[in-house]
Amino acid sequence: IWCISSGTGEAVKDAVPALKQAMQDPSDYRDENGGPPRKYAIHAMGGIGPVVLEVDPHVIPVLGDIMINDDDYYHRKAAALALQNILGIEGERLRHEVRGYREQ
To answer: Across the 104 residues of the chain, what is the mean pLDDT of every consecutive 10-residue run?
Structure first.
């Protein structure tokens, strides 16, 4: 997942749906490195950046829901950082923007 966010072009765009699905997976499965794929997917989505909006703007409400409602602090933090990178904004403006996407 990490190498996806550092790639370019179609490979990155093709990865967005799979990353979106992994972000929504609530399982506690651990990968071979001992980390949760969900958290890695959130980080990778943030690494892709604004291109995510071109591919699938519905990723924003998914990340917003994680940022606001997830039980895991690290998931909430990772989602906030990903949204900051994708949308290029932070703080209260970020929360306001996420609410707008959730209402669409």
So the answer is: 55 83 74 70 89 90 91 90 89 74 62
What are 33's two structure tokens?
């490195």
Q: Where are the domains of the chain?
A: 2-103
Q: Which residue has the tokens 């950046």?
A: 49
Distance CA 103, CA 54 (A): 19
Q: What HEC string does the chain produce?
A: CHHHHCCCHHHHHHHHHHHHHHHCCCCCCCCCCCCCHHHHHHHHHHHHCCHHHHHCCCHHHHHHHHHHHCCCHHHHHHHHHHHHHHHCCCHHHHHHHHHHHHHC
Which tokens go with 96?
């306001």
- pLDDT score for 93: 77
